Structure formats: C-alpha cells, structure tokens
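Q: Structure for this?
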Amino acid sequence: MSRIRIFNETDASTVLSEVHQHAGIAAELARIGVRFERWQAGAALTPGATQEDVIAAYRSDIERLMVENGYKAVDVISLTPDHPQKDALRQKFLNEHTHSEDEVRFFVAGSGLFSLHVDGKVIEVLCEAGDLISVPANTTHWFDMGPEPHFIAIRLFTNVEGWVANFTGSAIAQGFPRYERGQALAA
Ligand SMILES: [Fe+2]
C-alpha cells in the first residue's frame, strides 16, 4: 500500500504524520508541487510484455503529461533482485541530490521509496504499482529501491542526456529510514 510519512528534517525518529489513502497523499504532495496520481492500464499486460507494450498500455496518461509538461522522451526501466549490479544501482541515488529536470516515474510493478527534503521537512513517499510521482526539477531528494530491488517503471524526460544527479553533499539521507522491503521479501 502506498504511504507518505512526514518528518522534521532534524528528527528521523518521529513521524509527524502518516497517510495511506491515495487522495490524502496526493493532497499533501500537491502542497509542495509534486504530482502524485493513480494510473490504470488501458490494456492487459502479460509476462514478457515489451517496453512498447508497457508504454502502449498507459499511452493516454503518458501523452497527457508530455503535453502538459513538455516531456520529450519516454522509456521503461526494469530491475529485479538478480541484477548483478543491484548494489551499485541502489547506491547511485541514495544520497541527497537534485536534477535540472523533473524526475517522473510511473510504477508499473514493484515499488520504491522517494524521500523529498523540502521546507525543513523530509517527506517520504512509498510508491507502489499504479503510482505516478513527478518530483519537480531542483527539489532535493533521494531514492531507495531497497536491497532486493523489484520494479518496472515508466520514465518521462525532457532531455535524457541531461538527466543526471547533482549531489548536495549533505549526509541527511543516511539518518533517515532506508527501504528494507526487498530484504523482508527475500528473507
Ligand atoms: Fe533523483
């Protein structure tokens, strides 16, 4: 189940508020300019579906966002716990960073944990299958796919080449909860 938890940036041990209901999560995120939606597939996806099948199943929502926000490219990323570089891939976005463009992710399957650092708060968003999140350009955040990553995600870009992480140098992410679900599933 999707979830949002809000912490003061100085206290990772106290959850100030927690919401599981989708409309409540979306309302909380809208206050800081973050888009959060539920998407329904327009066609059934079966095992072995190609990138093109996945994109086709969500084409109307993808096109709506591309028109509204000027995104120019779309792709599909898939990660499973047997990926040989899973630890390095997890590590890549674990520390606080920004991007010069929006980070737009739709979870077709699986899950991941975004933490947004905004206005003195850390806003942790557990994204599950069916969730679309768009983190605005220049928002400080980090992302944890967990020790046993499992997700398929559609990504939207303004400029694929420009999509790099600019690390802030802050160690804040290391003090906040990591995503351990994959570990629990694997145990
Ligand atoms: Fe990011």
